[in-house]
Design brief:
Number of helices: 11
Radius of gyration: 27 Å
Oligomer: single chain
Number of strands: 17
Structural class: alpha+beta
Order of helices and strands: HHHHHHHEEEEHHEEEHEHEEEEEEEEE
CATH architecture of one domain: 2-Layer Sandwich
């Protein structure tokens, strides 16, 4: 976490320096013109840059405080580790706390211990040493996740692990290694863009459904027509929305000889591949699932529908549809939208558009002399790529491209992301020999539990659809 925050600090400082350069450029342009006063456009640009710099200063101050707190925690833990090393064992609970940050992790990339080999030996051969290492790994993961969960929810976005929790399961299950949990999120940043941009929450224990109450209709007020007469009396009504917990799972059969004899630990290869595929499936679940109490964003009943019908679509004609998607959230949810999601092909089509003079309509930087319909950010196949109508645009290849009557349409999703809650547990892994004993094979199983609340506020979601979003041409 500390390394991530330091990287964020460096990025923030660089961004602030770039903003200062832009501000200086505005001032210099006035000086070079020989005028003594900013024009109206220059003043607007100047004020906007100053506001951005002030916001960046606040961000830097917050990062400095968080880094200082974590550095103090590290020093405190290091002192505890030194005392532990000098004075010996001080109880299992204390050892668990110390070893997480002061000693090498039980299972780590390039390490000698193999998570899958120990899982097999503990489950099948009752190897006490393997079981001890698995239990120690579980304590390490639980301790790290507990520390992360203590932070503010907004600080979890993009961090090295989400606010995951161990969830219901049966005997014989173990939490995958800490490096795998971290990699699972690292892979998820690319493989599950939408899932990582909505509100994350740990999945509650011992439940198969999560119901949240909501106000269906509210109270009311009215002008009192005359004194000493009854005032308006309207009772509020309530209901609830339910999200069923679902299981996403996968398995892999490998030879027992590979676990017993191979000098290569297969953990990194197999777990990374399972994690990558799980990331995609979790993202698809959030975007497009369509089952009772398991509804993804594209299938929420009552969401704002914006239709763009056009045989020869253009970005200029699509532009007002984006404004409509935003205003419907403003007027239906009474709070602002904050993110757009689209398929990479749709953003690429937008960046390819030019005006009558051949100038791009989506430019590499804002405040250019052209009429800008959108501004490019990072050039990426997944994740943040720029802004449209002032909101960040995230591209996600898991958004379907086979929708509509011609099975060739994609969708643009605009939403207030904090209104959508994605509950997620900690992935679990198991090893079984029984069903494959006749061929000397071991079945490795990976699974996790998730639930999605996308229907709490249907009016917080807008979906642009129609023939204007068919396969683009370039």
């Amino acid at each position: 976490m500390l390394a991530y925050l330091r990287k964020q600090m460096q990025s923030a400082l660089e961004a602030r320096a770039a903003l200062k350069t832009d501000l200086d450029g505005i001032v210099k342009s006035v000086e070079d013109s020989g005028t003594e006063k900013l024009s109206a456009d220059q003043q607007t640009a100047f004020d906007a840059k100053r506001a951005e710099i002030r916001a960046k200063d606040d961000e830097i101050a917050d990062l400095e405080a968080r880094i200082a707190d974590l550095e103090e925690d590290e020093k405190r833990e290091q002192r505890a580790a030194d005392l532990h090393a000098r004075h010996g064992q001080a109880g299992e609970r204390r050892e668990a706390r110390v070893t997480v940050t002061s000693e090498p992790e039980t299972y780590r990339k390039g390490g000698q211990a193999s998570y899958f080999r120990d899982l097999f030996r503990a489950s099948v051969k009752a190897d006490s040493g393997a079981a001890d290492r698995l239990r120690r790994n579980d304590r390490e993961v639980a301790d790290r996740l507990e520390r992360i969960a203590r932070g503010a929810e907004q600080a979890l976005e993009g961090m090295e692990a989400r606010a995951l929790t161990t969830t219901d399961g049966a005997g014989g299950e173990f939490v995958p290694p800490l490096w795998m949990v971290n990699d699972y999120v690292a892979l998820a940043r690319g493989g599950r863009v939408v899932a990582d941009q909505v509100r994350p929450m740990g999945l509650p224990l011992n439940t198969d459904s999560i119901s949240l109450p909501r106000v269906a209709s509210g109270t009311a007020t009215a002008e009192q027509t005359t004194q000493n007469t009854a005032v308006q009396n309207t009772d509020a009504t309530t209901n609830s929305v339910t999200a069923n917990v679902t299981t996403i799972a996968g398995q892999q059969v490998i030879a027992q000889q590979l676990l017993d004899q191979s000098p290569i630990n297969m953990d990194q290869i197999l777990l990374a591949d399972l994690a990558a595929d799980y990331a995609v499936k979790a993202d698809v679940f959030v975007i497009n699932n369509n089952a009772t109490n398991k509804v993804g964003l594209l299938n929420v009943s009552g969401a704002n529908a914006v239709t763009y019908t056009d045989a020869t679509p253009t970005i200029a004609e699509l532009y007002p549809k984006g404004a409509d998607a935003i205003q419907q959230i403003h007027t239906g949810r009474f709070l602002p939208a904050d993110k757009h999601f689209m398929h990479p092909r749709r953003w690429a089509w937008m960046t390819a558009a030019v005006d009558s003079a051949g100038r791009p309509l989506v430019v590499p930087a804002a405040n250019m002399p052209q009429n800008v319909l959108a501004a490019m950010g990072a050039v990426a196949s997944e994740g943040f790529v720029g802004t449209w109508h002032g909101l960040p645009v995230f591209v996600d290849p898991n958004i379907p491209v086979n929708l509509g009557a011609g099975t060739n349409e994609d969708r643009i999703i605009t939403l207030r992301s904090s209104d959508v809650i994605f509950f997620e547990g900690t992935p679990q892994a198991e090893a079984f020999r029984e069903t494959k004993a006749d061929q000397l094979s071991v079945l490795l199983r990976f699974h996790n539990y998730v639930a999605l609340h996308a229907s709490r506020y249907p009016k917080a979601i807008s979906v642009i659809s129609g023939t204007g979003l068919i396969t683009p041409t370039f």
